[in-house]
## 1
Amino acid sequence: MKKIILMLNMLVFSVSANAVEIQKLDTKVARSGLYVQQTEIPTVNILLTFKAGTIFEDGYSHGTANLVANLLTAGTETQSAQQIQQSLEKLASNIAVYSSRDDIKIEVTALADNVEPTLQILQEILTSSVFPDRELKILKSSVLQAIRQQQESPGFLAMYTARKEFYGEDNVKAYVSSLGTEKSIAKITKQDLQRYFKNYITKENMTVSVVSSLDKQIMEVLLDKYLLPMHSGSAKELIKPTPVTQTNWARVEKDLPQTTVLLYTKGVSRVSPEYYTSVVFNYILGGGGFSSRLMEEIREKRGLTYGVRSAYEYDLPYPALFTVTLQTSNKQAYKVENLIRKELDKIGAKGVTQEELQSAKNFLVGSFPIRLRTSDKLLSYLDIMQKFDLPLDYLNTWTEKVGEITLEQVNEYAGTFADDEVSFARVFVGRM
């Protein structure tokens, strides 16, 4: 049965980027909602998103949001976690809850014929979860172990340090792990989880994304019928962290056979006027796998790393990072950092070629429709569109706007982005 659940979420339906008809949901239950109908597969996929992640934990210990998300399906006033799971399995349905730095998401997958009993279960979870003492104790122990494991992960330590340096000590919510810390987890009580649940998992603090074989009007009726009993509250407003301006050079000493090298600077948002240009630029620099410049220079020509990647954090609702990351032998760490900076200087001073530009655009335009071919991927895009208030034609015009990017635009962006090498701060994690 679990295999059926997974298949429901991953089944491919026929859709091209120019044929996604996105409509607004008209419901009483959500402040915002988007809907796409797909008729090839008789399924319903719903994503509820709450402004309730780590960055919103005002007045609560860090890690509260994660504990709430993990315990939301651990038992209600009338059903145990086992009973909930058994009921879902009989329906071939799934309800998954997870948290991040900026939200808590609940994803529902069901056969169209079983959507009502699935929503009945969801209603009970959203109105009467009890956060059982035994499950809370077990989960806190598991989270503490995960936090300790994070401290042994060079990749985590590099990004944690970069964010801490970038946002500054006073913006702890922007860099602390969504798991919290050992000290913060110890302070969290069952009463804290219940208060957070009633304060954040509310109609007013929720957006809804739907990909369904059922008509929009039917989904609107069902959503109102089963979600209106949810708690009422207020839409949470984010106080965006302001990055500090100084350049940082951080080292985390760990006895490891390799050093993790991370260079970072301020990135761009998905709503930035430079967004589409940055997508093309990043593909050429280090986001395009083996076709990228950094991979060619550092791995292919010199064999100094297994892989190197550059990336923007486009989807955070506050200023985020652009990063270049790799692992290399301890003795080569400074050499690799220098190679990255030289490549940044080169692309900033000389720009990219017409051949690189066309290759990047061909891949990006050609691969984008594939990202929309599963319900869960499409749901995530509907969620992003609501988070950033993007237009309804966003998915239909994405490839067109990438295709319109010119060589002059990319080179102007590259020159501005990479013209000052000291703007790229650095973190090393390893034994140097």
## 2
Amino acid sequence: MKHIFGHKNPDTDSICSAIAYADFLNKQNIDAKAFALGSLNKETQFVLEYFGIEAPEQIDKLPAGTEVILVDHNEEKQSIDKIKDLDIVEIIDHHNLKIETNKPISVLFKPVGSTCTIIAEEKYFKNNVELTKPIAGILLSALISDTLFFHSPTTTDIDKVVAEKLSKIAEVENLEEFSLKLFNAKSDLGDISVEKLIKLDYKTYDFKDGTYSIGVMETTNAKFGLDKKEDILIKLKELKESEDLSGIFFTIIDILNEESYTFTSGDTEDALFTKLFSAVEKNNALYVDKLISRKKQIVPVFEKM
């Protein structure tokens, strides 16, 4: 059986792309199952419950030699532990290519707003494979989530066309209204711990001058994160030390106003972020207008350091 999973600290695109691709392969009489490398966030839970789909089993390790398919990621640090001991047979992703394999494999990368866009367009639509309402619904949800309802600079015309097709199958008549439901679910964090808040959407990268982690909180209620500044700063410093990082950043993205507020692990990181993004101080954080995409706007700048 092929095990399909997205990255650690999974977001909606990571989970839904795994579920949808397992569904597609099963319809081709290929034994496949979706898994999660971590607990689901509130938005993903909402999506699966809304469309009546069972959450995937969580795993943190697999026996050596297990056949796996990676979706929505391809970096070793973001994947399951000891990924090199597993048999990677396929990758579907919309990020830049990082991983190395010891044999030729099937690779499908496209510069679009979500991995679910790729699966919907390249797998289901182009092969005329039936899409059920629930699967179309989770594909649509992940597409909307990853593109911030088409406000993210990662959005392409393909995403918009695919979203229109999916919305008809999923019977979602008002995309804007539905997107607000998604974002409100994403923003409902209740009494979440500070570490879980930082790691809701958290990725680690090897840049030229060291290893950095970047956590992102996409929300309609930026004040929730801003009010936790002191606790967040303490936890960022702890994580920097415990994970042996060169630096760590936590960016609160205000979805509705298309702006961001960033906290860092220290003065050196403050200065670096300010220099790279011309950030200014606002609401006791490093503020940058229109900086709303880690993939398209933040990571590429760090890669050029």
## 3
Amino acid sequence: MNPKILWCSGLALPVLLVSVALTACGYKTTDYSRPSTAVALARYNANGTPDTANVVGGTGLVTTDVNTSQDDVAFAVVRQPVDGKIITVGTSFTTPASIVVIRYNTDGTPDSTFGTNGITVTSLPSADASAFAATLQTDGKLLVAGRSCPLSGTSSFLLLRYHTDISTGTAGTLDTSFGTAGTGIVTTPIPSGSSTSANAVAVSGTNILLAGHSKIGANFVIALAQYTSSGAPDSTFGSGGIVTTPVGSLDADAAALAVQTGGKIVVAGLAGSAASQIWDVALLRYNADGSPDTTFGGGDGIVTTDIGSSSNYANAVALQADGKIVVAGNAFVNSFAGTSDIAVLRYNTDGSLDTGFGNPNGYVTTNVSAFDNGFAVAVQSDNKIVVAGNADAGTGDRLALLRYNADGSLDADPMTGFGTGGIVTRAASGPSTIAGAFAVLLQPGGEIVVAGYD
């Protein structure tokens, strides 16, 4: 199984991460009833139409099949600010799974100066290597986070750093000044933990932050790790560079991460029961040293939100310029009935729901089709909110892209709005029968780039 999406069940990101973590390492995508997926990169104009003029092929979509017999999926996308080149990061579910990094020119063609014909594949000895998140340092180097899962043993946080500029090293190669024994790779087990995965990465000053989960005792807990710029654990953060946070007696997982001005750390995910699959949105804030921010939520740094007494969870988080926190994910989830809506929530800086958003709830839900997932979120300079994910999960996924006004209403103006009623969907281009997005970024000209699978 793919640890970040199981499109045949309709389960969303954090639920799948926890569910898969209950099983042994060494899982694979083995759904031979459909063609395997390729990495997909698509660009849309600001109004939601495909950018057919500036992307090679004339469809606004580029697919890259790294391994034709296995699923290839992009879980993250970044844009290099100097030259506008785009990097996708994800996983090829070979045996064992490998990390895939692809760099594209601004028109979507592979960048031949990066890796081999634009592609770098990184494998670990006798272990699955899965990448779920990526970000750029200020010097342009690429940070990739995910999961190291030995075929026998305990899984760990996985962090890698790659060169992107020939002035520091060969573009597309691991940075041997980083990590363990000059490998460019860091693996971090969580003390007393098992079934561990890093799902998000961010830069905090010169430090590097990872967030995810680990199973300690009977429950999954939220886990954070901070590293210095060399990849060494940051001894000033938590205990030896690691912080674990249980949410009461519940299972919990961190799916997304953001760093506020001043260094406070915002983490979004879920809290609930891995056994019953009943979840609430979880939002936590930490001080820069990893201690709970007692000014946030109920004094423990934790906020949980139940939308309509159903199963809900967060997959992504973004910060507005005014400090408000935007979360995207799922609501009204019933994996047995195959139904779910996309959810967007906005919180004030103290963790209270912003009742001016989706008045009076502080959240909005959108039903695109049967089982819908909101996997990624970005906030425009005008505070319009862009959410990317999929629709019809489990029956023939379509990519879904939505835009909301600053008050939470869909950007549906027939003249100046986005797509049709604020929504854009796209079916798979073939031969794969499914398509979706896990990552979104906003370009300076207003274009929207999404990355995922097709």
## 4
Amino acid sequence: MIRALWTASTGMQSQQVNMDVIANNLANVNSSGFKKSRADFQDILYQTSKAAGTGVDGGEVPTGIQVGLGSRVAAVQKVFTTGDFQQTENELDLAIEGPGFFQVTLPDGTDAYTRSGAMKKDSTGRVVSSDGYPLFPEIVVPENSTSITVGPGGTVDVILDGESTPTTVGNIELVRFGNPAGLRSLGRNLYSETPTTGAPVSGTPGEEGFGSLSQGFLEGSNVNIMEEMVNMIAGQRAYEVNSKAIRTADEMLQMTTQLVR
């Protein structure tokens, strides 16, 4: 019975992490470019009382006896499916139609990557993220520009005051990874590379392996509220079942202590 107590407790701990992941997904249902996470579970150690294949009375044991000791969370993985596009008509809102990430430079000089294309201009005209991190390669919009046009291939053209011919001020590049699920979440819709992602590969939007850009749109979260609610209900029921197993094991222990010979 003591083993059942500890085994069921691991199930409750696993479901608690599952609920934490689901709650974070739901909390970010309106976060631009947010990618939902999924908890993966696995069984843990087994206690072997009799090994399969053990010889006995001229034969052998066909299956043996193994009792599992519970479950644990093996991984919490980001799911990089594309979210729904939302039209904003803001000339610096950009959505990536397909694979790829925008690259920004953090204050310490390191690189970070994001799917959120809610770009702004800072006081110097640089195109930056909502937190003020400049886009890389750096793009500076002249102060006397009256409109900005971003093509599907990342070309940034502006119309200068008093002119009718567009002027190209830069080109937006995208970055992709061989294993985007290995990216480390930094918060603020940012990711950083890890040894498991592979080296970042830069390229032009619309080329092979990279999505194209859509100006005036934002990619929404890929969280499906109905799916998360169903997962939450299933997780809650699994938590309740494990707590019931603990109560049942406790009652069995109580019966044992009350035995009278």
